[in-house]
Amino acid sequence: MPLTGISRISRRSVLAAAGATAAVAATGLAAAPAARAAAAAPTLPDGTSKDKVLFVGMDGLRHDRIDAAKAPNLKSLMANGTYGRSLLYANPMAATSSGPGWSTISTGVWPDKHGVKDNTFSGRAYGTYPGFLARLHQVRPELSLFAAVDWPELDTYGTVTPGADAKLVYNNDYAVNDLQITQITEDVLRNQNPDVLFVYFGETDEIGHGYGAASQQYLDAIDVQDGYLGRLLAAVRARPSYATERWTVIVATDHGHTDAGGHGGSSIEERRTFVLAQGPGIAAGARPIDTRLVDVAATVFRQLGITPDPAWGLDGKPIQDRSTDPFDALQSSLGGRVDETGIPTGVLGFTHTAPSGWSVISNAMGTGGVTEWRGWSFATDEFWSRSQRDQWRELNVRARGVFAVADSDEWADKTFSGTYDSTLVSPAYAVTGAARVTLDFTTFYRQEGAQTAQILASFNGGTPTVVRSYTADVVSQPQSVTVAVPAGASSVSFRFRYTGSNNWYWVIDGVKVSTS
């Protein structure tokens, strides 16, 4: 539950005044009475799939605090599943609040697509980018879909519950309603046949606001929610048909919390998120560096045997799919800070060593400057965005794992002379017999002053020719450059040349080359 613009007290007053104490609803049925202790499970249609998914969302659960808690069920899932940790965006893309966070999880796209930037939900584009339950209802209407939330905005604004055949919607009295949701969902799992369940718990966020993520109360809240998770897992295993079913369990959070409590800003602690999954085809004990929060929806679809239509525009990929990006191969060679002072000593996240087949030309580079950013570097999101907050580095959402970055702004934070002039050179790719060669990649470019950013192509080792230039901001977007292959050419290499002084930066990631 985020608190952007509305206090907890005032929001609860509004909900109570609206009679939103509790709702238990199924498609075609009126809301059930508000007597929560006696609430019965809604009736779902009988499921049709042996592949089933239980998604559990835990609001405001900072992943590094799981380690300090007991949390036996979460830790068991980590040991027996794949656990990817990453960072969120920050403003101006979106606040680290629940509206954008749950929209990102549910839709599988980033805020620049789904449109939710804060807890007003204004600008939401769920018609174009629906949540995964709504999408499942469209493409597999025979599936039995269930949703349970006690932050009612997830229902009010259509973030999570559309598409569900039955749903529970409670107010944000999490200490009471998280338990109620657990009890009713247990009943559904044991006595009915759902195919996909979206279950939301909010107490970790509430306690984070009240006591801070560094508090014992926050660890206790993690353990309580972990106990609820354990009850749901036990209910899955107790199903009479469990032996013939293929269950996937996914757990994720929408944002982190500061030590003192609160979120919405750009600190690393507020931006911490994770996706944890266990199920068929998902490796046990894996700790990938290329997981992002948008991967939840894509993982649900994969586990149900659904291939997303490219027209859906998903930004995510299944959590079990590893990146083939050459920069991610540098993970084991990443080092710690040299000149940067805002990056903790223990954060390993940069190297100047290019991956196999790649090289960096910096013979025209000026002297001095910050060591980490002297010429093209290879870095992680946490390392690079820690170098300086609130200069949009947090918006590098479509890069994964390790990426290449030329950052003349940070380079110039230490005495230097001359110009920043560095070129990243790709390997040579075979193009024999092809008419065209296409370079696909993601980029994040910020323009200022006289800086330049050029992509050049060199065929058969000849003189590089400019095939694209950037002169305006491109904020973390996929790019495609297609070049005609000259007659007789057998190979091509691409160069990314960046020049500037105390200007901004250029990020390259996910490079792929194909011919046609």
Architecture of the largest domain in CATH? Answer: 3-Layer(aba) Sandwich
Q: Please report the distance between the alpha carbons of the first and last residues.
A: 49 Å
Superfamily (CATH H level) name of the largest domain: Alkaline Phosphatase, subunit A
Task: Estimate the strand proportion.
Answer: 25-35%
Give the class-level CATH name of the largest domain: Alpha Beta
The third-level CATH topology of the largest domain is Alkaline Phosphatase, subunit A
Number of domains: 2
Main β sheet profile: 8 strands, mixed
Category by helix and strand content: alpha+beta
Topology:
Elements: H1 8-17, E1 22-26, E2 51-58, H2 63-66, H3 72-80, E3 82-87, H4 98-107, H5 111-114, H6 132-139, E4 145-149, H7 153-156, E5 166-170, H8 174-191, E6 196-201, H9 203-211, H10 216-237, E7 246-252, H11 268-271, E8 272-278, H12 295-303, E9 350-351, E10 359-361, E11 367-368, E12 377-380, H13 381-386, E13 402-407, H14 408-411, E14 416-417, E15 420-425, E16 429-430, E17 436-446, E18 452-459, E19 465-470, E20 474-484, E21 491-500, E22 505-515
Parallel strand pairs: 2-6, 2-7, 4-5, 4-6
Antiparallel strand pairs: 1-5, 3-8, 7-8, 9-12, 10-15, 11-14, 12-13, 13-22, 15-21, 16-21, 17-20, 17-22, 18-19, 18-21
Helix pairs in contact: 8-10, 9-10
